[in-house]
Design a protein that fits this description.
The structure is a single chain. By secondary structure, this protein is α+β, with helices and mostly antiparallel strands. It has a single domain, classed as Orthogonal Bundle (Arc Repressor Mutant, subunit A), CATH 1.10.10.10. It is built from three helices and six strands. The longest helix is centred in the last third of the chain and has 16 residues. The protein is globular. The relative contact order is 0.20. The mean pLDDT is about 85.
Amino acid sequence: MLCPCCKQEMPGTRLTISLDTNVVSSPQGTAKLRPRTAEFVSILQKAGPRGIEYERIATLMWGAQAHEIDNDNNLKTHACQARRALKPLGYTVAVQRSFGYRLAAL
């Protein structure tokens, strides 16, 4: 998929994520993720190159219970797990300070 602004390939478009099996695949290989981490990566992929806000990720992952959960720690944990799994596949989770996260190619 090409970015509508710059016409370059968008990060994460070569990733395939199965939320049924929690497996993420790229031309470089595959990785098995925990269910919530797979959901986290899927959210980042759908958000595109501009990323997505911390609060929006929490709402999408935990719904109405998002305010009851330690979102900061949980999101950091999922980001760390995703980074470890995605690195061999050529991707990482980039932090956008005071905003959120985005999927990025290495």
